[in-house]
C-alpha cells in the first residue's frame, strides 16, 4: 500500500479554490433554521443475505425541543427508504438484523425512561419490549439461533429507600465518575442473555469486573467480550479480549496477549468473529502511556491454536474491522489525512485495497451476504447518507437532499509549513466569495486532542460562512491522520507546538491575502476549547474567541473530571510532577497575557470536561478586566443534545464574533 496516495488531498490550488467558490449556485443561505432540518443518519445494519439495510435517523423536533430518532429500511439494490417504526414521542436506535433475517432488535425508551431492548418483525407489524433491567441496556448482539440476545447492563447501583430518598453516594474506586453515567459506586457492567420469546433474562457474568462489546460466535459456542482483570483496572488501560461459553458462570478464556489496550471500549468496535468461528479480529493500541496517541491497529487471533498476530501494521488508524465471507479478508475503515475510506485487507498477504477514495469521510459500515457493503459517509457539502460500495457505488438514502436548494459554502484543502512540518487544513469560503476582497476569518479548533478535521459536512461552518466569514480548520501537530510521531508531538505538552501551527496558518493565509489579519476569531469545543485558551495565551492576534467545554488549570481539574488515570499516565501525579502540570496550565497562570475577548461555554452535567474549567478562566479574565462572558447549558453533558441549546450556542458564537470582528452589536 502506498500511503502517499492519500496525500493528494493536501495539494493547495488557490486559483481552483477561488473559481470553485465564485461558481457557487445562487440559492438560500444555510442558516440556523436549516440547522434543525439536517437529519442525522445512523450506522447501518445489513440483513444476512445483504438485500436490506436497517438504520436509524435522528432529527430535531423544534416544537418539543428534543432530538428524536426512528428506524428506517432501504433495499440494498436501491429504492425508496421507508420508516419501519414511527413513534414521535420516543426514540429508537441501534437496529440490528437477526441472523435469520426475520426480526430486527433495537434500543428504545421504556416507560420508566431507561433504554431497553425491543424487537419488531421486518414486516413492521408488532413491536415488543423484551428486557426490563433496572439500569437499562447498554449494547447487544444476536445469538446465531435468532432466539436469544446477549447484552450488557449496569448491576449493583444503590437504590432509593422506601420514601424515595436517594441513597448516599459512596465511592471507593480510583475512577469514580463518568460522563453520562455519573458516580461509579458499586455498579459494574455485566453480560446478560435474554430469551426473545419467553422474555426471560439471565445474568451470565458477576464480580468486580466490567464487560463491554459482546459478540456471539456464528457457531453459537462462544461470546467474545472485552474486559480488564489485571492490576487496578481503574488505573490502567490494559483491556483484553476474552471468550466464554454463553451460560451463567461460564469460564473466561483470555485470547489477547498484548500488555496494553486490546479494544478500548470507547471505540465502540467489538471484536469480530470470522464466519467460520475460528478467528477474531480487533483493534489494538500502544502501551497504556500512549493512551489515544498510538494508532489503532489490526490484530487477528485463532481461538483454537492460540496464535495472535499483528496484521497490516501501518502508521494510521483502522476502525470497526469486520470479516469478509471467506474468513480471509477483513473490511475496515482506514483514516488518512483529512479523509477516511473503506478498505479490504488480506489477513494472509497483508495487502490493503481501498474500496472508496476521494475527499470523503466514512464513519461506519456493515457487510453481509456475498460481501455486500454499505457505508455511512459524508463530504464537504453532503451530510451523512448511506451508500453501497463497489464498482456500481450507489447512494441509497437522500434524507438531506433538500439542501440542493441552498447555496452552500465551498471547501478547499490547503497545506503550509510550520516549524519544519507540513500542516494541513480546510478553508471554507462564503457562498458569495469575492477574491478581490479580504474577509474576517474564524479559526475553528478541533477536539480530541487526537482527532482531525476531514472532508465532512460541518453545519456550523456553513452558518458562519453564510454570515460572511471565511472558516478555517487546521490539523496541527497532535492531530490524527498523519501517524504516531505527528500525534504524539503534543504528548504531555498540550498547547505548545499545536498553538504554533495555528499561528503559522494565520500567517500563511494572511500572506496570501485571503484573510484580514485584523479581524480574526477562534474557538472550539472540548480539546478545541482547551487549545483556544492556549492560543490566546500565546498570541494576541485573535480579537475574539469562544472556548467551549475547555479547561486551563489542570491542577484544578485533577480529581474533578473523569481523566485522573489519563493524567497520571501522561503527566504523572501533581505531587511528583508539578512542572508538567504547570506547563500544560499556562493559560490560567498567564491569564494576564490574554487580551482576546473570550466567551466561555460549558454543560452543567459534563463530567468529561466539567464547567470548572470554563468557570476558572472566566473568573480570571473577569478579574483582569478582559471582555468575557460565561454561558452554562443546564442538564447537558459533554455533547449538547437539546435543539434550542444547539441553536443558542451558534447564535451566541456569531453574536460574539460579530461584536469584535464586524463591530455589530445585537
Automatic annotation (TrEMBL):
Signal peptide: 1-23
Gene3D superfamilies: alpha/beta hydrolase, TolB, C-terminal domain
Keyword Nucleus: no
Protein keywords: Hydrolase, Protease, Serine protease, Signal
Domain Peptidase S9 prolyl oligopeptidase catalytic: 457-663
The UniProt record lists the keyword Phosphoprotein: no
Stated name of the protein: S9 family peptidase
Lineage: Bacteria, Pseudomonadati, Pseudomonadota, Alphaproteobacteria, Kordiimonadales
